[in-house]
Design a protein that fits this description.
With about 775 residues, this protein is an alpha/beta fold. The chain is built from 27 helices and 26 strands. Strands 11-10-12-13-9-14 form a 6-stranded parallel sheet, sandwiched between helices. It catalyses: ATP + H2O = ADP + phosphate + H(+).
């Protein structure tokens, strides 16, 4: 590994300089634009500062760098330095080196030791040490520990940059380079050159094609076992992204063959390689199914946790008469009479170690959850009010949901505190969850809402943390879209018959005359729908070319009526297309928050964010307390001169929480006048506008439209082509997810299944088609 003078140094010019401020930094593409104070250059350039742009990482302040590149005239911004590569400046004179090595960076190295090192190893001491730390053994009088610590610090300081620069030559981005460096440290480049396919195994998200390209350049045979192995892993990773927990062996083999596209490879060769990978524990072959290990352990582990929790008895027997009395007084208080199914749900939940409550909108899930909480509190003589507990940690009720918005809704509907599952388990965003088998949750009664959104990994993590004496209520609508992550945990739990469940079918809100609820149930039950206008529903017929105009008109009318922008939500299935989310957002921004001289704005490659814009967070950012799907508003934009951090800042408010974004974070947000139906899972909005046109056909499915429709609380406006809508609700999601949870659970049953015929029938629909 040559760390000395850069190979391009002789060919292109250089600028030695320090960061003044970062103008733009895109974390995904690791593209940066920065203002640099010039310390030294061989370029013919007389200014004090220069704007440098290129693929480099976030630059540190007060650190000299060498940038290699050439000047380029930008039509709008003038002369800029186009950076090909860069590195931190390391002194290469004797005095400079002695000063560097005896600086604070290297603990325990004084001037004398530094002089000895430079005396022995010469001016290229640094690259010699980085190449082989053993060279320090030749330096007289330097202790082994000091030598090791010096080499380590050097590697930490220089190694990363070296790896980044090298990987960039293979067009590997900075973010990926960071992951790679974390995994392999300074061995990263050696590994890449010897066996690029190892990256596919070890580095999440590293593409097979990139490895293939590098291996091809290095002359590796297309039938090499490393290539076949990486192909297998890659196919499995892709399948997980599609929602599968495993793949059947034959399908996996065929897909690997397609990917490798090499005539000399046969089914048998791939089978054999999969068997070897199984022996090496890189994959798990179980009953003709191929798993990535993390998914096998999640599925197997979750089934084991369910069994563990279910095998404990509830510690309290409640006589029916007592429960009847409690339910009776709750009915009086709530001024309602629980339906038969609802009564059954309360009764079962109180007596079951774990129960699932499922049902469509308006069937009374919230009403029943409140009933269960009150009944439980009353039986156990507990207060539901957290304030009544001197030691707050003794509060026995835990309410949780997979997203921030769903947790907020749970709080609103029950009046009790609720948190996200990640927060409950103490997720720090890096090393995993605080809570687990060794440190379980404190509490007596756990309610998990919106369970259809929970994937097999999260389900396993959550259930590990449930102590044996905790009672659990799982709530979810089985007809919603399945989780974004792998698995179909709710539907597998229901169809396994392992956990008691109550399915609410009688619709109560419909009695209040809700067309939205009626439509949702018609879709759910495959009944004919009509799109006739009603007091909470309108259908506006239009074709795709008119769609943007129609949406803008509806929005504008609503605003004229004084409805707040945050209460109107457009939901669409896809980003691209003339009628996609991106275009709808552009048009609505023009209407809702147009450009004015007074309003500040920042421009990114894809969008203009303006003060007043409604935006959505796209990734989890636990350090700031914002999560994927949170919706907020841009409230301020500061230029770099206006704050002490000297960087441009965008301030977004989410439910009174303020989060400051720098340029590098702008890719984490987008406009939210229109959001995707997938992102709307777990949220509800007073008014939903749902465009449905045939341009979306590829995406339109029954469960997608059902999810969209059930997001609206007060008013639903469908606009577009009735034909596309009808086709959509008639299209089942045929992408069946491969998951063996149901079988895993059934294998753990001690006595044969007692699934009634009715349930068996319901078993087939609709998940067999998903
Ligand atoms: N037994 C009942 N008698 C009268 N009204 C009821 C009964 N059960 C529920 N309701 C009413 O029906 C409406 C819907 O109930 P609830 O909000 O509990 O349903 P939900 O399943 O949680 O619906 P969603 O999923 O849409 O929030 C509420 O107004 C509630 O008060």
């Amino acid at each position: 590994m040559e760390m000395g003078r850069h190979s391009e140094e002789e060919k292109v010019g250089y600028i030695k300089g320090e960061l003044v401020y970062t103008i733009f930094h895109n974390e995904t593409e690791h593209f940066s634009i920065a203002k640099i104070r010039i310390l030294e250059t061989d370029e013919d350039f007389q200014e004090k500062d220069v704007v440098a742009k290129g693929y480099f990482s976030t630059l540190q302040e007060n650190t000299p760098y060498f940038f290699y590149g050439e000047f380029e005239k930008h039509a709008k911004f003038g002369m800029q330095y186009n950076v090909h590569s860069y590195k931190t400046f390391i002194p290469d004179t004797k005095d400079g080196l002695v000063a560097y090595l005896s600086s604070d960076i290297f603990y325990g190295i004084g001037e004398k030791t530094a002089e000895k090192i430079v005396g022995k190893l010469g001016e290229s001491a640094i690259s010699k040490i980085l190449n082989d730390p053993k060279v320090l053994e030749n330096v007289p009088g330097i202790k082994k520990e000091k030598a090791e610590s010096l080499a380590r610090t050097l590697q930490e300081n220089q190694g990363f940059e070296h790896v980044v620069v090298h990987l960039a030559t293979y067009h590997i981005g900075l973010k990926m380079a960071q992951k790679i460096y974390q995994a392999y440290k300074e061995e990263a480049i050696d590994i890449l050159e010897e066996d690029p396919y190892r990256y596919v195994f070890d580095i999440e998200g590293f593409g097979f094609q990139t490895a293939d390209e590098i291996a091809g350049r290095n002359g590796l045979a297309p039938t090499h076992p490393n290539r076949i192995g990486a192909g297998c892993i890659y196919v499995l990773q892709k399948s997980v992204q599609e929602g599968n927990v495993y793949m059947p062996l034959d399908e996996c083999t065929t897909r690997v063959l397609d990917l490798l596209a090499t005539v000399d490879l046969t089914h048998d060769v791939i089978h054999n390689r999969l068997t070897e990978l199984n022996t090496e524990k890189k994959i798990i072959l179980q009953e003709g199914n191929v798993y990535l290990p993390s998914l096998y352990y999640a599925e197997d582990g979750f089934a084991a946790q369910v069994k563990r929790i279910m095998s404990e008895e509830t510690d309290h027997e409640t006589p029916t008469a007592e429960l009847m009395k409690i339910i009776g007084s709750m009915e009086e208080e709530e001024v309602l009479s629980y339906g038969k199914e609802q009564f059954e749900a309360i009764n079962q939940a109180i007596h079951s170690k774990m129960m699932i409550l499922t049902g469509g909108p308006g069937t009374g899930k919230t009403t029943v959850v409140k009933g269960i909480l009150n009944a439980y509190a009353s039986i156990h003589n507990l207060s539901l009010n957290k304030e009544d507990y001197q030691d707050r940690s003794e509060y026995p009720f835990i309410l949780t949901a997979p997203t921030g918005r769903a947790a907020k809704r749970l709080t609103e509907s029950t009046g009790l505190p609720a948190v996200t599952i990640h927060r409950l388990l103490g997720w720090d965003g890096v090393s995993g969850f605080e809570k687990g088998e060794s440190e379980q949750l404190d509490g007596k009664f756990l309610i998990i809402d919106e369970f259809s959104m929970v994937d097999i990994w999260l389900a396993n993590s959550l259930f590990k943390a449930i102590p044996k004496d905790m009672q659990v209520l799982i709530v979810g609508d089985e007809d919603q879209l399945p989780s974004v992550g792998p698995g179909q945990v709710l539907s597998d739990l229901l169809s396994s018959g392992y956990i008691p469940f109550v399915r609410l079918t009688e619709v109560y809100r419909q009695k209040e005359g809700s067309k939205i609820i009626q439509l949702a149930h018609e879709i759910k039950n495959d009944q004919a729908t009509n799109l006739e206008n009603d007091k909470d529903f309108s259908y506006i017929s239009c074709y795709e070319p008119q769609l943007l105009d129609v949406i803008v008109k509806i929005f504008s009318k609503a605003m004229d009526k004084g409805i707040e922008v945050r209460d109107i939500q457009v939901l669409a299935p896809m980003y691209r297309s003339q009628a996609g989310i991106t275009m709808i957002n552009k048009e609505l921004q023009k209407l809702v928050n147009p450009k004015t001289p007074q309003k500040r704005e920042v421009r990114t490659q894809d969008a203009v964010f303006r003060v007043g814009d409604k935006v959505i967070q796209l990734v989890n950012q636990p350090e700031d307390g914002v999560y994927n799907g949170d919706i907020g508003e841009v409230v301020a934009i500061f230029t770099e001169d206006e704050n002490t951090d000297n960087v441009e800042q965008l301030v977004i408010v989410y439910d009174e929480k303020e989060v400051v974004y720098e340029r590098k974070d702008y890719t984490n947000i987008m406009h939210a006048y229109c959001i995707s139906i997938h992102k709307s899972q777990g949220s509800e909005f007073p008014i939903v506008i749902l465009p449905v046109v045939s341009a979306y056909n590829r995406m339109l499915r029954k469960n997608l439209l059902y999810t969209a429709i059930t997001r609206s609380k007060q008013s639903l406006i469908i606009c577009g082509e009735q034909r596309a809508f009808v086709r959509g609700i008639e299209t089942m999601d045929t992408n069946k997810r491969y998951s063996a949870l149901k079988e895993q659970l059934q294998a753990r049953l001690e006595k044969p299944l007692d699934v009634s015929e009715e349930h068996e029938e319901e078993d087939i629909s609709p998940y067999d088609f998903m």
